[in-house]
Amino acid sequence: MSNDPLVIAGKSYGSRLLVGTGKYKDFAETRAAIDASGAEIITVAIRRTNIGQEPGQPSLLEVLPPAQFTILPNTAGCYTAEDAVRTLRLGRELLDGHALCKLEVLGDPQTLFPNMPETLKAAATLVKEGFQVMVYCADDPIQARMLEDLGCVAIMPLASLIGSGMGILNPWNLKLIIDQAKVPVLVDAGVGTASDAAIAMELGCDGVLMNTAIAGARDPVLMAGAMRKAVEAGREAFRAGRMPKKHYAATPSSPLGGMIGGDGK
Q1: Angle at 53 between CA 103 and CA 128, to 5 degrees
Q2: Does residue 191 contact residue 210 with C-beta atoms inside 8 Å?
Q3: CA-to-CA distance for 163 and 209, rounded, in angstroms?
Q4: For FRET with 34, which of 87, 117, 226, 262 sits at 20 to 30 Å CA-CA?
Q5: Model-level pTM?
């Protein structure tokens, strides 16, 4: 276990990279990419992936067993609070009472932008029913605080639209959310390449969740390894504390004292 763990709902994880399981060419590629990423939390779309609701069909849990990974059921494809709650109830039943979940309630099928009124409504119901809710949301500091006040265990603002690969479009709002939050903040959606993940971590995010950035790469397994390194490097840079930016003033990398002519003579 890492000496700088990610703690969600009281459980510690060594990896701060969370990954999805969709869009791979087959289960073999899925498993290879997950292994390369080092991820311990794996998110699964209950509406799109068989984890036991289709008996006799290949199950993702045969490839990614819950004994080895924390399976994070999500509500991808849900557009109302009612559908999202129903979907996660099914996920909890399929996973033998597993409480940790990822809530997303979408507002538009083209942009996949979150419907925040329905998200807040679903979150309130799920928390009351004992779910540990990690929630996909807009990068709105006020609504992020409302979700935390409802009892969500992690806030997951989008960096940019799901599957867009546009990276972090509004670092200022993201930083406002990070600075006020008392629960983990993870960027969810919009990461396109390793530098995007590193920037999210350098801003102070507790983790990054991604799917398309890995599965949609030319070489998903290689990209998964790159994302692992980027998240680790970004976290270390955040903890180290970057040097202050200095405009219009150069400072030598090495002291001049002791150099010939270094004292101005």
Answers
A1: 35
A2: yes
A3: 12
A4: 87
A5: 0.89
CA 155 – CA 238 distance, rounded (Å):
19
Q: Please say whether the beta carbons of 19 and 238 come within 8 A.
A: no
Edge-to-edge strands, sheet with 41-45: 154-157, 132-137, 100-103, 70-74, 41-45, 17-20, 207-210, 186-188
DSSP 111-172: T--B-HHHHHHHHHHHHHTT-EEEEEE-S-HHHHHHHHHHT-SEEEE-SSSTT-----S-HH
Identify residue 99 by its one-letter amino acid code: A
> Cβ(208)–Cβ(200) under 8 Å?
yes
Catalytic annotation present for 25: no
Q: Which residue has the tokens 């070489």?
A: 219
From 102, 175, 245, 246, the catalytic residue:
102
